[in-house]
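Input sequence (604 aa), recorded before submission:
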Amino acid sequence: ERSGPPPSDNNNPPPAEANASALNNSVIPLSVIKENGRRELIDVLDSVRGKKGLVLDPKFSGPLGLIAEVSLLKEHGVEKIYLLNPGRFNTECKSIIYLVRPKVNLMKAIAEHIRGHMADGQKKDYSIFFVPRRTMICERVLEEEGVYGEITFGEFHLDLIPFDDDVLSLELETAFKECFLEGDRTSLFYVARSLMKLQSLFGIIPQIKGKGTAAKLVIDMLLRMRREMGSDEPTISPEIDQLILIDRSVDLVTPMCTQLTYEGLIDEVMGINNGILDLEPSADQKAKKKIMLNSADRVFQDIRNLNFTALGQVLNAKAVEIDKYYKERHAESISELKRFMKKFSSAQQEHASLTVHADVAGKIKKLTSSAPFHKQLEAEQNLLAGVDLSNDYLEECINRQEPLVKVLRLLCLQSLTNGIKPKQFEFFKREILQTYGFEHLFTLNNLEKLGMFKKAEGKNNFPQIRKALNLVVEDIDEQNNTDIAYVYSGYAPLSVRLVESAFKQGGWKARDEVMRLVGGPTIEETQQLPEGVVDNVGATRSGVTLVFFIGGITFTEIAALRCIAKRKGEFHDIIVATTKLINGNSLMNSITEAEIVPQPTSAP
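Predicted structure, token format:
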């Protein structure tokens, strides 16, 4: 689970935005997206007069906190905030607004609430606002439950949510499973519609590239939606010059690897929920401490993309810098004192932030310094380089009943990179079911259906792809971020190598052979700008590329994309968008039929 803190009343609200990224340093004004979301939320709240209770879909409470603070909700009549749970719902509020994703289980929970109130003789006004749109199946469920006539319906069209100056997410928890396992294209429609909204705000995107079946479907939808608009489309100069859509299914290797950047490791070890880290309390604290992780924190901004091995040196340098500044407080002249006071507030903030991140890094280091972590990392690096895992290591993991998610990620990594022989496949399948329980048979079947865990049959393309795209870089300098392979200590994410190659001379067309090996369609489209609209790239600004991952992206892949964007004079500014911010555990958990992933906890 990666949802935000569950609110139960006004004293336990969705995350406040006090420390949220101000979005001031974005290459395009992403704050416009946030403001649009806030305005529409106000319209939703004001559509129900007077005081009201707000009931939130648990998966939506965290993302909502990124666009609206509790004070805004109060200003527009919200007395109490609740999480939607099945069972009895006791509230004194006469008017109730439900903000929910269109899910059948949520409709049944709402029906339970309404029937309970009716049985108790309570008369209330109910409104359901679907995020981002209503569906016929949800309405049918409410009809079958006998409560449809009691409800007023609406939609809250929130789609892409700005998480930071260069990151947007739809936060669709089930998009990967629905799209790639179940063949449900609903999330692809949401992607296409969110891109249409971006084009209405920032102009038509002239160049579109896509890799993978889902990417092709989204591009087809996008072009069709534009044709259907006719003459109603915006006539503004484009602020985004290129869209690159990457289908998660073309690179399932990368999320199976342990992330090795600072931000990536925090997510792997402790879990980042809607930009917030819940830090376990120390001996003298009672409650968890909530740490906002975004570019508003200057210390975090400087260290988030570093390989963890380079972190200590940078933190020490920052500590020396702050210590040097504090020594300047014994200023002798008025001008020196003024200079000291001018920086005082920011220095205090940096000092506090440095203390927090030194604590977090210390907790993570306990894990990364351990023998089991090194053994796991060595196994991953060997697989990526083309060396098979020893059966002994995997058997040992299973016999010790290590977390099933760790075993599955390693098995999937072996299957995707080097393949698993039929005998081995049957052996490990049997061992997993006997050790962890036969309820995991459906999970193994899902992994097989996705092609993540299967018998080796025919030729495996990964060795050729590895060579052609230089995915494994020997003797990588983890302190020096010149090649994106630093993020995984020698492995360059396949997904980001594809983005990188799109920028190079000749683009994907010049690399036709390797693009075929990667699998899935390769699409390149040019959109004509509306009549009279001029593309001002190069004249008044540098180029901007929107990279959209369908099916989720990891923090370490984002770090690699930032590495590309920092190469001066070589590439464009990059904004990242995705259906969901993920890690290997959350991706694995989204496709399982039985719970396999424990909640992330602090390193021992």
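Checked by second reader. The two ends are 21 Å apart (CA to CA).
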